Amino acid sequence: MQVLVNGAAAWNTLVHVAALPEPRSQMLMASRHHDGIGGTSAGKAVTLAALGVDVTLSTVLGDDEEAAKVRGALHHDRLRLLAQPARAGRTERHVNLMGDDGSRVSIYLELPSAPPGPAPDVLAALDAADVAVLDLADSSVPLLAAARERGVPVWCDVHDDDGLGAYARPFAEAADVLLVSADRLADPRAYLRHRVDAGSTLAVCTDGARGAIALDRDGWWEVDAAPVADVVDTNGAGDAFLAGLLAAHGQGLGTAECLAWGSTAGAMAVATTELAAPHATRAAVAALARSVRVSRV
Q1: How far apart, in whole angstroms, are the C-alpha atoms of residue 45 and residue 56?
Q2: Alpha-carbon distance values, 88 to 11, 114, 221 (Å)
Q3: In what order do the strands lie in the sheet with 32-38?
Q4: What is the DSSP string of 38-85?
Q5: Which of 22, 191, 197, 220 has the fewest CB atoms within 10 Å, i.e. the most exposed one?
Q6: How far is CA 257 from each of CA 20, 151, 196, 269, 284, rounded to the nearest angstrom?
Q7: pLDDT mean over 110-132
């Protein structure tokens, strides 16, 4: 299976605090902090590569020191990087405040933009792809239509979409497989039902330690959260879930097994300070996934 992932790769500073600060002047003590690769598309790409999937990551990078760090963190035999030049030469950067309860605030320091329109090498990668994972980014918007024209299935992670905002709409509407978080959804089942009725073949809503629910054209699924001994860092858990789901799909596994793989990869992501689950292996995910309950309801 050949996968094209398009979207963000960044160099981030992550600061861990007991609880996210209230909106007032105050002093906080961090329990720890570190720098590392970030970006939802980078998280998916490194996890897919770790799980044995050949992946091309299309992103935007500057010509600065942070770009070199991102390139180094993305080095993998199964991962090909297509980096479009950022107009201002600056790589995307965030400071993420991470609460002990898994909550997060991302402060954008740099948000680069690329030249308009897909580059020829990105379109060539789309032509060769079996699946296109098109993340929330301006550069993904023209690829939604390009993938449809080529008959390439589109997978979209719309993160904490509430069903009302305009930016995520074209992504949700184009998705053959859709992933969303329960964070801002008043009625996750209604959201998933709407998406499947509109054409998605599978729509999944993740809900942290509570697991996930999913809907396909044959009905509902409930997915338990895979066991985690210690939650270290929640960055990239959703990215890892999608990567596990897709890696299992690429092996021809059934929907229940694919959902179990997604839950397992997501659990592996929260047990490390690294983005998503670059340490995951296909064998380890397959073994743990057998213990994850996935049932029709």
Answers
A1: 8
A2: 16, 9, 46
A3: 32-38, 10-17, 93-99, 104-110
A4: E-HHHHHHHHHHHTT-EEEEEEEE-SSHHHHHHHHHT-BTTEEEEEEE
A5: 22
A6: 36, 25, 20, 18, 14
A7: 93
Whole-number pLDDT of residue 254: 98
Residue 117's pLDDT is what?
A: 86
Bridge partners of residue 157, in order along the sequence: 179
What span, in angstroms and rounded, lies between the C-alpha atoms of 269 and 12? Answer: 17
Tokens of 126: 């789309």
User: pLDDT-derived band of residue 273, with 50, 70 and 90 as boundaries?
Assistant: confident
Distances (CA, A) of 228 to 190, 233, 241, 266, 289: 29, 12, 14, 10, 12
The interaxial angle of helices 237-250 and 255-270, nearest 10 deg, is 150
> What domain range includes position 179?
2-22+29-296
pLDDT digits (tens, 9 = 90+) for 40-59: 999 999 999 999 999 999 99
Residue 104, pLDDT > 90, answer no
Full strand arrangement of the beta sheet holding 212-216 = 79-85, 54-61, 2-6, 131-134, 154-157, 177-181, 202-206, 212-216, 219-223, 294-296
Neighbours of 253 (CB within 10 A): 17
Q: What is the CATH number of the domain that holds 158?
A: 3.40.1190.20
Say how many domains are in the chain: 1
Residue 227 gets which letter from DSSP? P
